[in-house]
Amino acid sequence: MRVLARAAAVLAATATALLLATTASAQTAPEHDPISTPAAATASALVTKLSHSDAASRLRSSNITWSSSGGCSDRTRPNCTSFEQVNLATIQGAQTLKGATGCALNVTGGTEVGHASGTYSHYNGYKLDFALSSCLTNYIKGTFTSIGGNQWRSGSGNIYYLESDHWDVTYYNCGGC
Questions:
Q1: In the prediction, which pLDDT does 82 show?
Q2: Where are the domains of the chain?
Q3: Where is the secretion signal located (predicted)?
């Protein structure tokens, strides 16, 4: 009987010590933003998707405009500019770019069909196209690192690709938002 009582006391003390250690480490552990610092294996599971109206509202609040050759926002039509299912970090990246450059930004491509496929594609919410402007071009070329092939990498790792008539930007993160 004494052995059982002693074993129970040791178990109780061990459980209390574990509980205190767990609580202490939980209180001192830094918080992680799942959008900008996901573990590599879980990045896709932690991406926050936005509706077209929510993304448009966020862009509007930062004075970022958008246009469409078809005058529409239907994701299933390639001549529309849609933000349906765009990543939150992509929209925040555009907002960060606007704040850093002070340039007028006009989005000409979003998540609509008709762009190249791939994991980090327009359709999957990682890319936006911006209309060319000397302000934007001068900022990108003067601030980011040229990596060849008409591409520049920002300090946060986002890629800016100068195509013939627009900037194609891949947002892996929000760019320090």
A1: 98
A2: 1-30, 48-170
A3: 1-26
